[in-house]
Amino acid sequence: MEVILNSSHKAMAERSVLCWLATADESGQPNVSPKEVFAVADDKHIVVANIASPGSAKNIHINSKVCLSFIDVFAQKGFKVFGVASDVTPEAAEYFRWVEPLRMMAGDRFPIHSVFVVRATAVEPIIAPSYRLYPSETTEASQVQAALRTYGVREVGGNV
Q: What is the pLDDT averaged over residues 103-108?
């Protein structure tokens, strides 16, 4: 079985606060929206809770090709995942399999109307230009420090 989503992808997804799901409508107009409750379900699938995303759901029904991205905003690294999405509703037999990793994250605070199941077909890294343009002086630690200064965030007890 081919692994598309490996442990590095899963670790980065877990460090990310949001993912961004890009879909397109019937005329090809792209739409990107943030998703707060998502998880790497297995080696080929990312699941995203449809909490308040009627536009994404409509687009997925029209055009199942999607791109999903997640990054560590401090390290300025992440991944974009190309894939094919389906909108799995609670009436579907496979719904409970896909919703399970999302339930704990959503808790009672967010209703999950359906689950966008993204079958990954390819993954590409996302990195800030500094990593490529200045490889000898750019490290993850230097990027984190620069981002902390830019965002005005202080580390407390080693945590951001």
A: 88
